[in-house]
Amino acid sequence: MKYKKINIGIVGLGQIGSRLYREIIFKKRDIELKTSTRVNILAISAKNSNKKRDFNFKRKIFYKNPLHISKDPNIDIVFELIGYSDGISKKIIETALKNKKHVITANKALIAKHGDYLSLLAEKNKVNLEFEAAVGGGIPILRTIKDGLSTNKINKVVGILNGTCNYILSQMETQNNSFSNVLKRAQRLGYAEPRDPILDLNGYDTLAKVRILSALSFNKKVSKNICLMNGIENIELEDIEMAKKLNFRIKLLGITEIIDGMLFERVHPCLVKKDTYIANINGVMNAVILNGDPVGESVLQGEGAGPGPTSSALMSDLLSILRGNIKYPFGTPFNKRKKIKPYDSKFYLNSLYLRIEVKDIPGVLSSITKVFAKNKISIKNLIQKPDKKNKKASIIIITHENYEKNYKNLLLNLSKNKFLIKKPTFIRIEKV
Amino acid sequence: MKYKKINIGIVGLGQIGSRLYREIIFKKRDIELKTSTRVNILAISAKNSNKKRDFNFKRKIFYKNPLHISKDPNIDIVFELIGYSDGISKKIIETALKNKKHVITANKALIAKHGDYLSLLAEKNKVNLEFEAAVGGGIPILRTIKDGLSTNKINKVVGILNGTCNYILSQMETQNNSFSNVLKRAQRLGYAEPRDPILDLNGYDTLAKVRILSALSFNKKVSKNICLMNGIENIELEDIEMAKKLNFRIKLLGITEIIDGMLFERVHPCLVKKDTYIANINGVMNAVILNGDPVGESVLQGEGAGPGPTSSALMSDLLSILRGNIKYPFGTPFNKRKKIKPYDSKFYLNSLYLRIEVKDIPGVLSSITKVFAKNKISIKNLIQKPDKKNKKASIIIITHENYEKNYKNLLLNLSKNKFLIKKPTFIRIEKV
User: Fold this and answer.
1) What is the pLDDT of residue B160?
2) Which of B34, B301, B327 sits opposite A299 (nearest CB)?
3) Which of A56, A126, A282, B432 has the fewest C-beta atoms lying within 10 Å of its C-beta?
């Protein structure tokens, strides 16, 4: 049998890059079988060439300047695994595409920011730009949308897209432990960034993934809209417990949907009924629910992060390229992907869970409920939990459905209320 | 923009074929966008040309003899949607492949039986043979194994692969209704064959799908092994209720795995813990759980049957071909796919649930338990439910783990027991 020969360059040799390196070596024979192609890692680059790694390589394949890999005429495919949303990561990809090299990356922040520009560059140069690993880790969700459900009209995608947040919320419930303690454990276990976990926790990471999912699902440009984005930083054990009592569970969801022809993308913690599918995705797992016509509802679930699932996704990109499967990075040509008007979130109708910490003195309840009445928001449930020792109380309120804009005013008015000890915590109730 | 032109022939215009016909017309523009190809339905064929259909077509595209479509030099892609495991279905596909036409089919029985031969034929003629719709309906499970998880080493696949059975079992539980009543309803709703539903109910349909999944997951030939295969025909409402009390749910599972380098394929009803993922797939839904390395556990869930999901899968096959994605039908070339020795099911270790209907007279229990002791099968739980009015009793037994071969002897010995009113019902307890 005659094999094609393909040379690979890998930029970035952290956990993911190292695992990928070993995976390519280990699966060489398998790749030959499935694609009649012999792959060869011809170049690698990382910050530090002398760092101890769990694999051996010939010194001559190590490049100090990663851009030289993007320009090397012997290289056919470049893996970008550094992960910045701009800077050197963008430069590496840009240069590689311009030099007619296929690019594979796991970089969601960069694809969410520059995906349109880079996809155009890939299309012009007739090479692939693949980023399966950017969303959902081991779940082949992008390929499923592009290939498996290719002609479906998708109208809504809901996902648990950040394993760190899901792990923290799950652990708070099962271990009955505080946010900060669980976060510390997540950091020890490598699920959360040790120094600055904020991009995971505040919803930013999920939003980047939502933007990529939207572009693929609705055949449109990657949106730059300002979106509803709340993280899990303010969720306390008390909310977890209260949700449980009310037969809910708290999940950080990324949601994108088309409402009246407009695009509504958002990321925020949600109260979801305990017996729903999404409520039962626990730990570091990711899950995506798609609604399409004619397929109906499709659900995909799998490990969301870590070297194993991520390298599985990177390898699927590699094999797709080796099979000669040259495709538009977002499934549809750049100039056919429309811009869609954003849906104004202030018209979003939902119920809200609020936890309001107040001083435990007479007149509080009437003062608080008056604020609700003034904003024409009617209360469905109200639970008062006094904490006599600390002379405070928690007021938990579930509202009847109302508009986002009215809640905004409500929260503003509440925060001015003199009985409040701190800003209220609010979580949207989501029917999924 | 310059478009390629591709001509399509559709053989079989039942529910699926008709929906596909309309879907292709309706999505023409979308297909052009995504593949730069203009598709044209140039030929159709069905048993009856005069039947009233929900779409219009020019008489001249109707072929009396479907084999003429397979031979027509103007046709590029043939859809086989008749569904026989042999005969005309096989002939249509064979002829089309030999004439260098791509073939798309939803025919699991045929692929399970002749998949190896036909894939070789496709490979030789450098055309595609695609059958995504054969397994899991709207779940793009074959594409996920072939592409999304392409270099993973998969070691186990567990699935709910027959929507009819799952619907019946779910409805028996939720509606508290008998097997035969629920079956009748399933037939009225079009979920079960009106005349002969046995191929759905006895596990045969699921086994065909399991064989296809094995071939793809383990890069091997389609097995012809005799497998453990039991259907749901003997499950009664009493089993459903008893399972519920014992914190289980009954599901018909298709399972394939590699044990000590040998292939173990089986289909049978299983008692699965109520809080597991698979236990909570209800109604006509299908679900597949894959275990792979490095990806970990992946779960896919979606509608398993019906014109919508099936045509979604057929369309994904079409687009894959239009993108020029010529691939080995089973992901790996024919001659590289090994035969794997079958695992001998008699060494399979599991616990069993048994319901034994006996005459309610003294000495029964000791006589029955003696049979267990003689076969060295120890009992974990025993529940006796007398039915005084009919002078009978049900004995429900959960065993400790034991070998399949010992259960075989047990069942043989039990059926000879003079107190038994009918053959015992047994369901394997499955840890998933």
Assistant:
1) 97
2) B301
3) A56
Contact A19 B294 (CB under 8 A): yes
Chain B residue nearest residue A33, CA to CA: B332
Interface contact flag, B150 A277, Cβ < 8 Å = no
* pLDDT tens per residue across span A113-142: 999 999 999 999 999 999 999 999 889 999
Q: Interface pTM (ipTM) of the complex?
A: 0.85
Cβ distance A34 to B332 less than 8 Å, yes or no, reads yes
DSSP string across A364-405: HHHHHHHHHHHTT--EEEEEEEEEGGGTEEEEEEEEPSEEHH
| Lookup result for tokens 């089986």 | B266
CB nearest to B308's CB, from A219, A294, A323? A294
Between CA B395 and CA A405 the distance in angstroms is 62
Distance CA B391, CA B358 (A): 9
CA distance A249 to chain B (A): 16
Q: What is the pLDDT of residue B1?
A: 62
Q: What tens-digit pLDDT sequence spans chain B (432 residues)? A: 678 999 999 999 998 999 999 999 999 999 999 999 999 999 999 988 888 888 888 889 999 999 999 999 999 999 999 999 999 999 999 999 999 999 999 999 999 999 999 999 999 999 999 999 999 988 999 999 998 898 899 999 999 999 999 999 999 999 999 999 999 999 888 888 778 888 889 999 999 999 999 999 999 999 999 999 999 999 999 999 999 999 999 999 999 999 999 999 999 999 999 989 999 999 999 999 999 999 999 999 999 878 899 999 999 999 999 988 778 999 999 999 999 999 999 999 999 999 999 998 888 999 999 999 999 999 999 999 988 898 999 999 999 999 999 999 999 999 999 999 999 999 999 988
CATH 3.30.360.10 is the classification of domain B141-302+337-343: yes
Of 1.10.3210.10, 3.40.1110.10, 3.40.50.2000, 3.30.360.10, the CATH number of A141-302+338-343 is: 3.30.360.10
Give B140 to chain A, closest Cα distance, Å: 5
Respond yes or no: is residue A359 known to be catalytic: no
* Nearest C-alpha in B relative to A278: B277
Give me chain B's average pLDDT, please: 94
Assigned CATH topology for domain B346-429: Alpha-Beta Plaits (3.30.70)
What the block records as the tokens of A329 is 């990075």
Nearest neighbour of A150 by CB, restricted to B138, B307, B319: B319
Catalytic-role residue among A209, A220, A251, A392: A209
In chain A, domain spans: 4-105, 141-302+338-343, 346-429
Q: Per the CB < 8 Å rule, is A316 touching B151?
A: yes
Q: How many CB pairs under 8 A join A and B?
A: 167
Give the HSE-up count for residue A41: Cα atoms under 13 Å, Cβ half-sphere: 27
Contact state of A324 with B327 under an 8 Å Cβ cutoff: no
Report pLDDT digits (tens) over B224-238.
999 999 999 999 999
pTM for the whole thing?
A: 0.91
For every residue of B280-335, DSSP letters joined together read G--TTEEEEEEEEETTEEEEEEEE-SSHHHHHHHHHHHHHHHHTT----TTSS-GG
CA distance A412 to chain B (A): 42
Angstrom distance (rounded) from CA B11 to CA B24 = 14
Cross-chain CB nearest to B148 (options A143, A149, A333): A143
Cβ separation of B295 and A301 shorter than 8 Å?
no
Is A296 in contact with B303 (Cβ distance < 8 A)? yes
Greatest alpha-carbon span in chain A? 86
Cβ atoms of A80 and A43 closer than 8 Å: no
The residues, ordered by sequence, that sit 6+ positions from B366 with a Cβ below 8 Å of its Cβ are: none
- Of the listed ranges A190-199, A312-321, A389-398, the least confidently predicted one is A190-199
Residues listed for chain A: 432
Distance CA B309, CA B123 (A): 28
* B21, B39, B151: best to mutate for the A interface, most A CBs within 10 A: B151
Check B301 against A298: CB less than 8 A apart.
yes
Q: Does domain A4-105 have CATH number 3.10.129.10?
A: no
